[in-house]
Amino acid sequence: MMDFFLGWWQYEFMRYAFFAILLIMPLFALLGTMVVNNGMAFFSDALGHSSLTGVGVGIILGMSNYKPAMVIFAVVFALLMNKIRHSRLSSTDTVIGVFSSCGVALGLIFMSYKGSFSRYQSLLIGDILSVTRDELVVLAVILPIVALLWVVCFNRFHSISISPELAGSRGIPVRLLDNLFVAVVAVVVMLAIHWVGLLIINAMLILPAAAARHVAKNTRSYLLTALAFGLFSGFFGLWLSYSISVAAGPAIVLISAILYFATFIVREKR
Amino acid sequence: MAACGLHCLKIKHITVAIGDNVLIRDINMHAHCGELTAIIGCNGAGKSTLLKAILGELAHTGSVEFSGHDGAPAEGLRIGYVPQSLKVDGGSPSTVYDMMASLVTKYPIFLPRRPKTVKYIKEHLNKFNAVGLLDKKLGQLSGGELQRVLLATATLPKPDLLVLDEPVSGIDRAGMQLFYKLIVDLKSKLDMVIILVSHDLEFVRNNADHVLLINRGVEATGSAQKVFASAAFRREFPNADFSHKGG
Questions:
Q1: Distance to chain B for A142, nearest Cα, Å
Q2: Best of B54, B86, B94 to disrupt the A interface by mutation (most A CBs within 10 Å)?
Q3: Which among A110, A147, A124, A128 has a CA at the least distance from the CA of A27?
Q4: Residues of A in contact with B52 (CB under 8 A)
Q5: Do B110 and A219 touch (CB under 8 A)?
Q6: Which of B147, B202, B203, B234 is the most buried (most CB within 10 A)?
């Protein structure tokens, strides 16, 4: 019986995956609460797609490790998308749609150059069992940084999400903080995309927060519930993937989705 | 605290244009503390645009100056702003406390509440008939409740300049009356410049010390009596009838 629940611990890659989830799910839950508050689900989805271009740019520049290229490109992409989003020249949906498709098309062109596309398919689906010790160290550095950012800036992010005009009238640097937020989301999404895959990474960002919204009484319970939902789906999904031999990322997302619908029913019944 | 009448907001030659489209042009206005200055005009006249220029949200030419008791420019102008609406949906978990605390303190609102902050906000909400709304979600407030909460938020702490962008609709008559009563009370009690964009001509007529009628540019300015009697007013509001009311 113990083996049924804890058998996975004997494998190093499972232990690494466990720690990765312990670090990445809180990050996603924290950022996700603000992504959902700001109605930016589509925005973060486009960011995920931009990872393809980032890899493509890395290949063109002849970089053996294309992750830095991905992160830098995603940050630039996010800032540019944010600038156009605020220019009021076009509707947000359209701008994000255009950026998203351009990101995918450019990436696919670079990656399919000389028929090398199949090497990068892991980017689409991801594999959390491939996490290395070095990557865990990077995550362990990023999590406290984001947590600190949350402690220092959360109130201002919150004010901006409620009314950018009201926040601006109080002297809050709305545009600067907005850019900082999208840049942080870009970095975290890029760090995680190899383990989760760009097809479902956005679901992992959005679902715990969206489910938490159904049951939260206030902002404090919103954040705490999103954290709990994120960690629960992460660990349960990983265990499920080990137990019935399915991919971990989709299992995690599926559990988050079940939480989403379950909390929706709870809210409707109240 | 009674108004000192010495703070002054001077708006000089404000023009806002997006491309070739001039939204407002060459607007001049002086407003003093303890006075209620109302901006009126028909829909699309540029009232909200002017407010956004004053708040520094829209790029504009011209200047917005605020001077203190000695006539010298006052540093760090504190602005209280009541927006027309908020960007929250019905499912938003943000409560009245969350909004107010996130604006008045840096202590993160996701940590356990500090009794000191709760007391500070509660006491202030109490002055606005809104203390019972502390834990209500913003998306679930009625139009009138939201306006009172926004007014309470804008005046915590006391601003030098209070800017109100009145909603066009969504508030019942009783809610609006209460809102107006609170504004009149604030005017008499607090030392600040109040600028109100209003659609309620009767309220403006009875309570504004200074009226600015705009339609892209300034059409008429002065006391309510003077503006309401002007040819420009009759042109902009042909259906408004204030002839039977005394000054």
A1: 20
A2: B94
A3: A147
A4: 165
A5: yes
A6: B147
Locate tokens 């362990």: which residue? A140
* Lowest mean pLDDT segment, chosen from A145-159, A179-193, B7-21, B207-221: B7-21
The pLDDT score that the predictor gives to residue B175 is 81
Contact A123, A8 (CB under 8 A): no
Query: How does residue A115 score in pLDDT terms, banded at 50, 70 and 90?
Result: low
Does A218 contact B95 at a Cβ distance shorter than 8 Å? yes
Least confident residue range of A83-92, A129-138, A192-201, B223-232: A83-92
Q: CB pairs below 8 Å between A and B: how many?
A: 97
Compute φ and ψ for A172, nearest 5 degrees.
-75, 130
- One-letter amino acid identity for B185? D
Facing B110 at nearest CB: one of A152, A162, A220: A220
DSSP letter assigned to residue B114: P
Given the structure tokens 């244009």, which residue do they identify?
B17
Go through chain A and tell me how many residues it has.
Answer: 270
The closest CB to that of A219, out of B56, B93, B153, belongs to B93
User: Which residue has 């265990």 as its token pair?
Assistant: A239
d(C-alpha B31, C-alpha B44), whole Å: 23
CA-to-CA distance for A259 and A133, rounded, in angstroms?
Answer: 31
What value of ipTM does the predicted structure carry? 0.88
Please give the domain boundaries of chain A with CATH numbers for all domains: 14-269 (1.10.3470.10)
Domains of chain B, first to last: 1-78+158-242 (3.40.50.300), 89-157 (no CATH)
Cβ distance of A168 and B57 shorter than 8 Å: yes
Chain A nearest C-alpha distance from B112 (Å): 8
Each residue's pLDDT tens digit, A178-235: 999 999 999 998 888 888 888 888 899 999 999 999 999 999 999 999 999 999 999 9
Identity at A224, one-letter amino acid code: L
Q: Given an 8 Å threshold on Cβ–Cβ distance, is B92 in contact with A166?
A: no
Closest CA to B51 of B74, B18, B29, B78: B29
Task: Round to whole Å and give the CA distance between B12 and B108.
Answer: 39
Q: Say if CB B175 and CB B142 are below 8 A apart.
A: yes
B101 CB within 8 Å of a chain A CB: yes
A229-253 per-position pLDDT tens digit: 999 999 999 999 888 988 888 899 9
Q: Are A202 and A41 in contact (CB under 8 A)?
A: yes
**Pairing state of beta strands B8-18 and B161-165?**
unpaired
Tokens linked to A152: 């220092």
